[in-house]
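agent: user wants the structure for Guanine permease from Salinisphaera orenii MK-B5. delegating to structure tool.
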Amino acid sequence: MYRFVPGRIRDYAVNAIARYFDFDTLGTNFRTESVAGLTTFLSMAYILFVNPSVLSLASAGPEAEALGMPREAVFTATALAAAFGSLVMGLLARFPIAQAPGMGLNAFFAFSVVLGMGIDWQTALAGTFVSGLIFVALSLSRIRQRIIDAVAPELKHAVAAGIGLFIAFIGLQNAGIVLDDDALLVRLAPLTTPETLLAIFGLAVTLVLMTLRLTSAIFLGMVATATAGIVTGLIELPNHIVGQVPDVTPVAGVALTRLDELFTANMLVVIATMLFVDFFDSAGTLMGVARQAGLIRDNRLPRAGRALFADALATTASGLIGTSSTTAYIESASGVAAGGRSGFTAVVVGVLFLLALFFSPLLAVVTSAVTAPALIVVGVLMCASLKQIDWERFETAAPAFVTVLMMPLTYSIATGIALGFIVYPLTMAAAGRARDINPLMYALAVIFLGYFVFLRPAG
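agent: tool returned. relaying tokens verbatim.
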């Protein structure tokens, strides 16, 4: 009679994993990939608590919170979307790149779409779902490359930097560091309230940890801030750490019930913005992390189509599950630095996000003072794109500047993108470079201009 030996089963499984993910060719092994996956997870675990805070509009006041998504359900949706996205990227594209609901995309969803445009979150989820479907179609066609080539590099970098400023501005508001002012629009707060002081403490800790290049600095900064809040009595200690998985049904599948409300000018702009940001954010992250991992061959990314397809599937799934668009995470670079080279790194991240489902009680200690430092530091990281813009050429610097500036000033990512895309053909043509403009950019400029003139509602 054959006896199952645990050691043999384990060895068989490890060998099968090694063959599928091609460990020998990549010069890696099971232990290294596992450590890399844990490293990446710790670097991006903050999204489990920041995303529910953003989408619930919990820090924007009682009236705004009434318009936001249910926080505990979003926690579950965030973990499920991150797990699905990371597993698909690891198993299908076999890259050490994890996915989760994206910072910037969630801010656009909550503050621009729901709070700014007055579109309810259920319809916004439907927009996320449809943008994912369009992304899937583009990933399967040659149109993908044409779109990537159509948008000037300066505008791509400007969008990333503008989103960074927008997120940081939200973080400063949530921390109580800046306040609205009737005369000045915004001003520095007195910085004397206990909650604001706690947020400043958390920001200082996170900045120090980031400067020391400590892995999972943002997550550890949140832990330090929450701990300080508990010690000082500003945050109530939860009764337990591990609990039941929160019910996701209040947000799951809701997108399918609102598809008939997408055929409006506002929603078409929303879907286009979601698609644009997700598409270029993913492409940039994939190339950046893959280059660090040494996976680029002849300046091309092998299986790039699969990677973008995996990203598109994740965004589609996130809309169905009940959260904002999922995208590839630049924090994956921390796992690559720890030795991750294969898709098994992303698989480990996906499994860890599933295990994290049982830690929802920690949501109680993640207040706006705890999440604000994370938003501000993520904004700093995203503004690194500014160095990629050629500021010596005014014809490209001006539209990039308009894009970056107008996102926080209009409190809208979509508006910043639209205005930048309108200015770009104008300055390029004036500089005698009209032939350098892709025809698609002319079309987009006309569409956005028409939207502002004829369709955009007042206020």
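agent: one observation worth passing along. The chain has a mean pLDDT of 89.
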